[in-house]
C-alpha cells in the first residue's frame, strides 16, 4: 500500500505542476527578463535563460537551486557572457519548469530529461555548473553522457551519504519524506519556509533581503518548489555513482548553516583530482552571493585548469 501511495503522491504532484504550464509560458514567468526561453521535452517544460556570448564561445550551464529563480542571475549572466555562452535553467518541477503528468521525479529519469534539454538546447561538450543535489546530476551525466560534458563545476555538492544526512537534518520530523503530507506541506508553506531556508543557507544577514525579495516575487507568481517529491525519489541513499574522468572544480561556501564544512572534501571520492575552493564569507550560493569574486575563479579554472591564489 505504501508503494501505491508513493506513486499516487508523485503523480498528483506532477499533475499539479502540469496544470500551470500554459500560464507560465504566457504570463510573468515568460516576460520577467528579455532572455527567458522555454523548451519542451516529453516530460518537462524547461524555463531557462540563454545569453550567447562571443561567437564560438564554449557553453557554461548553471542549474538553479530553488527557491532561487532565474531572476537572481542578472549579474552572474552579465559577467559570464563576456567569455561564454551561458545557459541557466530551472530544474524539473522547480521554479517555472513544470513537469508533465508522466514525470515521477526519479534520479535517472530526472537526469535523462535534463540531458535531453542540454543536448537539444546547448549541444555537446558543455561545462555543467550545478548546485547542491543537482551536482549529483552533473556527475551522473558526466559518467553516462560524456559527450555532453567537458567539465563540471560543483557548487555546495557532497557525496550521497552526506546528502542523506542533509535530508534528515532538513526534515527532522519526517514531513517531507511522507507521500501526500510532504507535497501538501510544500504547497502550503513554501512562502514561510523560504526566508527560514535563506537565513540558514546564506549565513549572511546582509544577503537575506535581496534573496528573499527575488524569491518572494517568483513564489507570488506561482513558482513551483517540488522539494518533497525530490526528497522522496531523487535523493536516495542507495544511489551509486561512478567517479568521473572530466576535470572538476568544487566551490564551497563556509557560512552555509545547512552543510557542515567537513562535507566539502567528500566530493573527492566522486571527482578524483577535483580542485576545491572555499569561501569563508559566503554560504550556499557563492556564485550568486558574490559573482564579482566567484565568477573570475570559475573563468580562470576553465581557461587555465587551476585556481589563482588570492
Distance between the termini: 57 Å
Order of helices and strands: HHHEEEHEEHEHEHHHEHEEHH
Number of extended strands: 10
Helix content: 40-55%
What's the Cα radius of gyration?
18 Å
From the helix content, strand content and strand pairing, which structural class follows? alpha/beta
Q: Which ranges are low-confidence, i.e. pLDDT below 50, for 5 or more consecutive residues?
A: none
Largest sheet: 8 strands, mixed
Provide a count of the helices.
12
Shape: globular
Quote the beta fraction: 15-25%
| Averaged pLDDT | 95
Order of strands in the sheet with the most strands? 1-2-4-3-6-7-9-10
Could you write a compact summary of the structure shown?
This protein is an alpha/beta fold and about 300 residues long. Helix content is about 45%, strand content about 15%. The strands form two sheets. Strands 1-2-4-3-6-7-9-10 form an eight-stranded mixed sheet, sandwiched between helices. It has a two-stranded antiparallel sheet with strand order 5-8.
Q: Which keywords apply here?
A:
single chain, alpha/beta, eight-stranded mixed beta sheet, 12 helices, 44% helix, 17% strand, globular
3D architecture notes:
The protein is an alpha/beta fold. It is 44% helix and 17% strand. It contains 12 helices and 10 strands. It has helices at residues 2-18, 21-26, 28-31, 74-80, 107-122, 134-144, 160-170, 181-202, 205-220, 227-234, 286-289, 291-304; strands at 36-40, 45-51, 59-64, 85-90, 94-95, 126-131, 149-155, 224-225, 248-253, 275-279. The chain has an 8-stranded mixed sheet with strand order 1-2-4-3-6-7-9-10, sandwiched between helices. It has a two-stranded antiparallel sheet with strand order 5-8. Helix 5 packs across helix 6. The radius of gyration is 18 Å and the shape is globular. It starts with a helix and ends in a 6-residue tail after the last helix. The mean pLDDT is 95.
